[in-house]
Design a protein that fits this description.
heterodimer, A: Rossmann fold, 5-stranded antiparallel β-sheet, 5-stranded parallel β-sheet, B: alpha+beta, 2 domains, 11-stranded mixed β-sheet, about 55% helix, elongated
């Protein structure tokens, strides 16, 4: 589902990151592990098409996203990549339902109410659909972010440090949620983290040194 | 969805958005009202001047002569002897002469003695009745009929002077034989009869005499149409120096007047445009701050698949929506102003103000859109160049 080769990226014209090859198939989970400053988030941004690598290829669902130009990368990201940022940003003026469905709008996919219901049921946030994001707890916001990331049945789900600010109990919960979210469409999951606690949840691991 | 995002964006820092709308509306109102009034004034000046090259009357103020004989808003400068008029009729440079005789009013509306050529100048048409044929028959303007509820067949007595408090002429009543169609010219508020009627009102001893024996000795003024514009240069000078009459070129007199009132208009227009530019500056500041404050939301939109162009589009639509609301509010207030002017202030008098768009007003909206669009170019470029990776990594 997602595969990279010979990926390098120059950060601020100074540091050069060279990444190992990554492969994550449908339904598989991959943990990219490493301490701060190893270019973990940068790698995730490359995989999401937010950054363009100096060299190398990123193939998602048979399309090399490094070859896409202009708005096409954005469109492809909207359709094939779910991204859960480290800090949970939601659009404040929209309610929870519209926050999730906005992802369909920008991916130019039809908003499917049944799918929305299935996902929100799975993530236990159906009762929050009419609420504004400001009124949600952090945990609830994270669930909304997950729902938003998977509403378009992406080929790959990318999560940036999803547990960094959580206690042990919640860390487990979040990992379980991600698991469940990926299970719905058999989505490939890539998590970048420096959190030792999740090493047990994802066995397929790549360490950035 | 994009509509929700745009409306949501505008409701963020709502007071700033509100201020922008108020500024835009205020500027629009002033500009629109100036344009409407200017248009009405110019239309009127042009329409009432139709086919009048020269006004000839007694010596005095040339502006007064034009105002009294063309626009009927001032006292006449005096009377002119019939002999002089007959001399003028022989002048080869003159195409036509329309005689005017006046001095009385009914309920404040001027009773004007003239002939058929006067009505023809303004392409007058009748809604009811017909042209006067006999002495003391009158044709009345559309506005008088409307506001004073006068019908064909009604009779009334005139009052001496310009206003409704002079001495009443009780010798012979006027009889309404025709009502004119609204023409948005001076005709709308005139009571028109033949020259003999005006003469007989002031010389009642001749009333019983036959029409043929009525001898009109004086007129108030003449509206003259010339054969060629070239005559405009010499003829007025000749008349002014060689006869006891005064010739005034109405176009020149009105230009002088417009020049004076134009200063005020220009100043007001300047103020209105300053307000518009102020609102453009305010839009710039608001939108720029909003984009900076909401850069995380913008980044999230990009994560969801929005392109850089989508972000620009959102900013642009937010701005256009603000501008449109401001414009519509401004036009609403301006039309309310027109309504107030029409019904409460100008009521039945000289200026006809229309609700419809004036030609220049049509450009107002595109100009506003252009100005507001220009004011958000920098915020749009800022949004276009947002470094999503950096914003997400700065968390």
């Amino acid at each position: 589902m997602i595969e990279t080769s010979e990926l390098t990226f120059t950060f601020d014209n100074k540091r050069i990151f060279t990444y190992p090859e990554i492969k994550c198939d449908k339904g598989q989970k991959l943990l990219i592990y490493g301490n701060s400053g190893r270019g973990k988030s940068t790698l995730l941004h490359l995989l999401a098409g937010i950054l363009t690598p100096n060299h190398g290829h990123i193939i998602i669902d048979n399309v090399d996203i490094t070859k896409l130009r202009f708005g096409n990368t954005d469109k492809y990201r909207g359709q094939k990549i779910g991204f859960i940022p480290q800090r949970l940003h939601l659009i404040h003026s929209l309610n929870v339902q519209d926050n999730i469905l906005a992802a369909c709008y920008f991916a130019k996919k039809k908003a499917n109410k049944d799918r929305l219901y299935n996902i929100t049921e799975e993530l236990k946030i159906t009762q929050l659909l009419d609420r504004k994001p400001q009124s949600l707890s952090l945990g609830e916001q994270q669930r909304v972010c997950i729902a938003r990331a998977i509403i378009n049945s992406p080929a790959v789900l990318l999560a940036d440090e999803p547990t960094s600010s959580l206690d042990e109990k919640n860390t487990e919960k979040v990992m379980e949620l991600l698991d469940r979210a990926c299970h719905i469409d058999n989505t490939a999951l890539i998590v970048v983290s420096h959190d030792e606690r999740i090493k047990n949840s994802i066995h397929h691991q790549i360490s950035l040194l | 969805m994009i509509r929700k995002i745009i409306v949501g964006g505008l409701s963020y820092q709502f007071l700033s958005t509100f201020l922008n709308i108020i500024l835009l509306a205020f500027g629009t109102t002033i500009i629109s009202l100036i344009l409407v009034l200017n248009h009405a004034y110019n239309q009127k000046v042009i329409k009432d001047l139709k086919n009048i090259d020269l006004v000839i009357g007694a010596k005095g103020s040339s502006l007064q002569l034009v105002l009294s004989s063309v626009y009927h808003i001032d006292q006449p400068t005096g009377n002119i002897p019939m002999d002089e008029v007959n001399q003028l009729k022989k002048n080869k440079q003159i195409k036509s002469i329309t005689p005017l005789a006046f001095g009385d009013n009914y309920l404040g509306y001027k009773i004007l003695g003239t002939d058929e050529s006067y009505l023809k100048k303004y392409d007058a048409e009748f809604t009811k009745g017909q042209m006067f044929k006999n002495n003391f028959e009158v044709v009345i303007g559309a506005d008088i009929a409307k506001y004073k509820k006068i019908k064909v067949g009604d009779t009334f007595y005139g009052t001496h002077g310009n206003i409704n408090i002079g001495e009443k002429h009780n010798d012979h009543p006027y009889k309404v034989v025709g009502i004119l169609k609204k023409s948005e010219t001076v005709l709308d508020y005139l009571i028109i009869c033949n020259i003999n009627t005006v003469w007989l009102t002031h010389h009642p001893e001749q009333i019983s005499a036959n029409d043929s024996s009525v001898k009109v000795d004086e007129l108030t003024s003449l509206l003259v149409e010339l054969k060629s514009p070239a005559a405009l240069i010499n003829l007025p000078r000749t008349i002014n120096t060689e006869t006891p009459l005064q010739a005034a070129v109405p176009a020149l007199e009105i230009n002088k007047l417009s020049h004076l009132t134009g200063l005020g208009t220009t100043l007001l227009e300047g103020i209105a445009w300053s307000i518009i530019f102020l609102s453009a500056l305010s839009i710039f500041i608001t939108v720029y701050r909003r984009v900076q404050d909401r850069k995380y939301e913008m980044a999230v939109l990009r994560l969801m698949g929005a392109t850089r162009y989508d972000l620009m589009r959102i900013i642009l639509f937010e701005t256009w929506l603000t501008t449109t609301i401001g414009y519509l509010a401004g036009m609403g207030v301006s039309r309310l102003g027109v309504w107030i002017l029409q019904n409460k202030i100008i009521d039945q008098t000289t200026l006809t103000i229309a609700y419809k768009f004036t030609p220049t007003e049509k450009f107002l909206f595109p100009i506003l859109i252009f100005i507001s669009t220009a004011s958000v170019i920098i915020p749009m470029v800022y949004a276009f160049r947002l470094n999503i990776s950096k914003i997400l990594a700065d968390d």
